[in-house]
Structure formats: structure tokens, C-alpha cells
Hints:
76% of the residues lie in helices and 3% in strands. It is mainly α. The chain is elongated, with a radius of gyration of 35 Å.
Amino acid sequence: MSAKKDPSVLQGFKAFLMRGNVIDLAVAVVIGAAFTNIVNALVKGIINPLVGAIGTQNLDNYSTCLSASCHGTHGIQLMWGSVLGATLSFLITATVVYFLMVLPMSKYLARQAARKAAREGTKEVIEVTELEVLKEIRDALVAQRRAGHEDH
Length: 152
């Protein structure tokens, strides 16, 4: 008796790489990285100058000192400007993804579902109509048989 060999690590890795979802994930990561550069440029080139009209162009400069004095790296500083910048980047990213990707895809899928439902509804109506026609034919044949038997 020979025991069944387990697949080698290399074969398992090859099977893992050949699965479709791994390739899709890799593409998503690459596109996401490129998209991040666009969002960062948007924040740096448009959002920060708009905020700079009120104060500084670099949101990282906004902070609050919690200790008696803050000089350089001494003291306790809350860097809320960095959090604000990251939050704006996130909101811009989420907005663009929603309006350019999620919303159009949702509308497309809804139209596809409506078309499919319409096709299925039409098919059901056709099947019902065919059934009604077949019932009428049956009834007509039964009536003919009865009429034929009554004549004899």
C-alpha cells in the first residue's frame, strides 16, 4: 500500500497564485496605490492651499500644546492638523470611489437585474399564454369527440 503524497509546497503556492481572486487582488492593490497618489496630489495641490488661505498651507503645522511650553520636540503637542489632513484625504478618496466606481456599478447592476426580471416576466407570460392555448385546444378536441359520439 502506498500512501497518497501531499502536494508539495511549491505546487500549493502555484495553485494559490493561479486562483483568479489573487490576480484581482493584486490589480486592486496596484490601482489603489496609483489612486492614493492622485488623492495625495489633490490634497497637497488644492485642499492645502485653500486651507492655507485661512492659515498655513501645511495642515501638519496645526497643533495644540498641552504642556507649559512647546519648543521643537519638547513638550506635549497634539498634532490635530495631521489628523485633519488624513481625514480629508480619506473623505476625498471615499467620495471619488463612491461616485466614480460604486454608484455607476450599482446602477449598472440594477439595470441588469431589471432586464433579467423583465425577461423572466415575459417568459412567464408566454408560458401562461401557451398553457391557455393548449387548454383551449384540449377543450375543443374534447368537444369534438363528444359531438362525434352523439352523432353516432
